[in-house]
Amino acid sequence: MATIELTNDNFTSHVESDDILLVDFWASWCGPCQQFAPTYEAASEVHTDVTFGSINTEEQHELSAAAGIQSIPTLMAFREGILVFAQPGALPPAGLEQVIAGIKGLDMIDVRRQIAAAEGEEQDGATG
Question: Which InterPro entries does the record cross-reference, listed alphabetically (predicted)?
Answer without folding.
Answer: Thioredoxin-like_sf, Thioredoxin_CS, Thioredoxin_domain
